[in-house]
Write a structure and sequence with these properties.
The chain has 348 residues and is α/β, with parallel strands linked by helices. It has 13 helices and 8 strands. The termini are far apart. The structure holds phosphoenolpyruvate and manganese (II) ion (MN).
């Protein structure tokens, strides 16, 4: 079974007592590999607690020394990197609000040229942009940091409006990042995805099901009194219960019957995928013919009533076949957009 990397600690270092009492509890549970604490906090609104600054680095150095643990913190500028190095911070991370800014990431990357052995974690940008995340990773790689020393943290994506989770997971994006950077550890941050301690466990389990390499979970000695992210932090004593409840499964299995059956099922899936692709291609050919007909008769591409009928009857049928409405709607939307693209090429 794989041993996930567990990172935990408060959202922010607030006071020496708060940090030490939190870490004392975490270290005692014996399940945490790296301690986290934010020293400089990028807050949405001015006037909120913006971090304790350099003073907090002294406390983190004390934690490291007293408990013989690795510590990590967020950096958003070359100055932060310099100070973190001065106090012996083992691992740095670039926060979501920094990953969106190529200027800021480049500044951090340049400052790392003097520290080629740095271990650094790069959170996803706040917006669901796989290229922006990739670009940040590329800047750090170009500064000479080894890929084995870079990790990716998935902390979810911000969208407008009220939703169950504070940040939407959009699991497809971190999975695409893992495809692009298979050597890098992929860590899930369920605290910032959920924004609410109630939902942390369910997000951790999805991450475990998707073979993530670790978790970053915010913990605080007294979450209700936390100066930042109060709703999403758990206590050090809740942490081991949470971690024990997550089921991590093996990458693969040596059982012969398992290997035989999975091969059978996979070849069935491969055949079905080929049929789906053939059918989609046939569908587009017909769509092209309709496009030519519309071109000849000067008829617009989008026939709203017709499209509503297609969607409604397909959704009804899909639901009666046990497929979810959400899933089928997404597929139909993609097919429709591709048909429109095809017909747009004809009706120039
Ligand atoms: C944090 O880890 O406390 C933090 C600010 O995270 P993010 O960059 O994901 O918002
Ligand atoms: Mn936080």
């Amino acid at each position: 079974m794989k041993k996930p990397v567990i990172i935990s600690g408060p959202c922010s270092a607030e006071t020496r007592e708060q940090l030490l009492s939190t870490i004392d509890g975490i270290v005692k549970c014996g399940k945490v590999d790296i301690i986290r604490a934010g020293i400089w906090k990028p807050r949405t609104h001015p006037g909120a607690f913006e971090g304790i600054g350099e003073e907090g680095l002294k406390w983190l150095a004390e934690v490291k020394d007293k408990y013989r643990v690795k510590v990590c913190t967020e950096v958003a500028s070359a100055k932060h990197v310099e100070l973190s190095k001065k106090y012996g911070i083992d691992v740095l991370w670039i926060g979501a609000r920094t990953t969106v800014s190529p200027f800021a990431v480049q500044e951090i990357a340049d400052s790392l040229r003097d520290y080629p052995d740095t271990r650094i974690m790069i959170k996803n940008p706040v917006n669901p942009d796989v290229e922006l995340w990739t670009g940040s990773v590329q800047r750090i790689l170009d500064a000479g940091i080894k890929k084995e020393n870079i990790a990716l943290i998935h902390r979810g994506f911000s969208i407008y409006g009220e939703h169950k989770y504070r940040n939407q997971p959009v699991w497809a994006i971190p999975l695409e990042m893992r495809r692009r950077f298979p050597e890098m550890k992929l860590i899930c941050d369920p605290s910032h995805i959920s924004g609410n301690s109630e939902y942390i466990k369910e997000i951790c389990q999805v991450a475990a099901n998707l073979q993530y390499d670790g978790l970053m979970i915010e913990s605080h000695i007294c979450p209700a009194k936390a100066l930042s992210d109060s709703k999403q932090q758990i206590t050090p004593s809740e942490l081991p219960t949470l971690l024990d409840s997550i089921i991590w499964r093996a990458d693969s299995c040596d059982d012969e019957e398992f290997a035989r059956m999975i091969k059978v099922y996979r070849s069935e899936i491969d055949e079905i995928d080929i049929s789906i692709l053939d059918l989609l291609s046939k569908r587009m050919d017909i769509s092209d013919k309709i496009g030519e007909l519309k071109q000849k008769n000067n008829v617009a591409i989008l026939q709203n009533r017709r499209w509503s009928d297609v969607v409604n009857s397909a959704v009804d049928r899909a639901v009666s076949l046990g497929l979810s409405e959400q899933f089928i709607s997404k597929i139909l939307e993609a097919i429709h957009m591709e048909s429109i693209r095809h017909q747009s090429n004809i009706l120039k």
